[in-house]
Amino acid sequence: MDGNAPDFAAASRAALADPELRGNFRRAMDGLMSKRAAQFADTGEWTGVRALAAAVRLRALSKLPELLEKLEETCTRNGITVHWAATTDDANAIALDILHKANAKLVVKGKSMVTEEMHLNAVLEQDGIEVLESDLGEYIVQMDGTMPSHIIMPAIHLNTRQIAHLFKRKLKDAESREDAAYLTDLARRVLRAKFEAADVGMSGVNAAVAETGTLCLIENEGNGRMCTTVPPVHIAFMGLEKVVERLEDVPPVISLLPRSATGQPITTYVNMISGPRKDGEKDGPREVHLVILDNGRSGIYADPELRDTLRCIRCGACMNHCPVYTKVGGHAYEAPYPGPIGKILVPQIEGLAKRGAMPHACTMCNACVEICPVKIPIVEIMGRLRVEAVRPGGAVKDGGAKASRTESMVWSGWAAMNASPTAYRLATAAMSKLGNAAPSSLPVLKEWTNVRTKPRFAGRTLHDLARAKGIPDV
Ligand code: SF4
What we know:
Layout: H1 8-16, H2 19-39, H3 43-62, H4 64-77, E1 80-85, H5 88-101, E2 106-109, H6 113-118, H7 120-126, E3 130-133, H8 136-144, H9 160-170, H10 180-197, E4 200-203, E5 207-209, E6 214-219, H11 223-229, E7 233-239, E8 243-244, H12 250-261, E9 269-273, E10 287-293, H13 297-302, H14 317-320, H15 325-328, H16 339-350, H17 352-355, H18 367-371, H19 378-390, H20 405-419, H21 421-434, H22 443-449, H23 462-468
Parallel strand pairs: 1-10, 2-3, 2-4, 4-7, 5-8, 7-10
Antiparallel strand pairs: 5-6, 6-9
Helix pairs in contact: 16-19, 20-21
This protein binds iron/sulfur cluster.
Iron/sulfur cluster (SF4) binds near residues 312, 313, 316 and 378.
């Protein structure tokens, strides 16, 4: 394993040993799953709107370079300054440059997964710039010094008691009250003062419309609107896949996203940002910047099979339904994107040397594929990444990093055995006779038998058992 590679297995074991964490996730996920199910009770409507949203995303990806050029042109016409970042370092440098020119000391941020990918907060703090997350979940996580555990609900791993305890420790004058309304009001008062004092506001982008140069941002707390309208400078960050062709492509996306994510028919706020404040207007920032991040996405785009990864609208539904994520929670992945989408996206942008374990953290049950509102074949992509991890020179960064001589010999032997009827009969007969004698501590069995009972072999092959029941060979 790469020395810097997060140890998913160890982190999962720690998460599984924490009953409060498991309880928090189970309760939250059960609630989200039932709310989502209520939204899509009409299966005909679900099938139709899902096909429409998938088609919108596929069409956008089919002409991505052209749409990105168009987006730059229309945004520029609207007065939005567009910046291109090949890497997260480039994106951070662009952000710092804008902040230095604005002489910024305080930044308020709305929710943005791309800035998590960039580790932007750490970069700004290192530069002496105060940065405050304004989404309530992100604010809690920032106060706790941890990272989001879910892409939509960053603090879902904590219950009210834990948040009350955190506020009591960190906020002056906080009372020890396990009361969600009280805690929200407390956070609102702190944040309100910061919105008014901030030099720069930052946000993500849910969809950027090439036709009109409009940045769409949906949210529930109004903090996104405050970040994008109150400070004199607004910087929006997006991955290059977030572009859509036309304004009419937005409704299917912003309808499916909250319904899939939290079971809401629509978010409380739908922001459509079309440029800085114009002469005579009373509010809005005087500068709007759009940072478009690549960070490996061009490479993903170049592969027709892996390209489907870029369809994602970041609803988080795949996490809520994943039997692995719902047990171990988001922090076990130690990644900006956890759960099923994380297992296919993060290895492609960070490389298989560091993230080769992620595609294996999957039972291949297909629940994420069934639930994904834009029909991403997550499990197929996961299978492909498992192959890429042991195949040097493939399409994915650090392809072959997990290649192992022993594993390759085992699979060659397996292939040879299955290619020859005689070898197959001999091997299965030997396994059925000797399998029960093999100790559970054998290296090849240990990973399985550490946490499970070793299965008992029947003592006869399946063919023998079938013949005994009168089923003829075919
Ligand atoms: S992969 Fe599908 S279900 Fe998962 S976050 Fe993306 S759009 Fe939502």
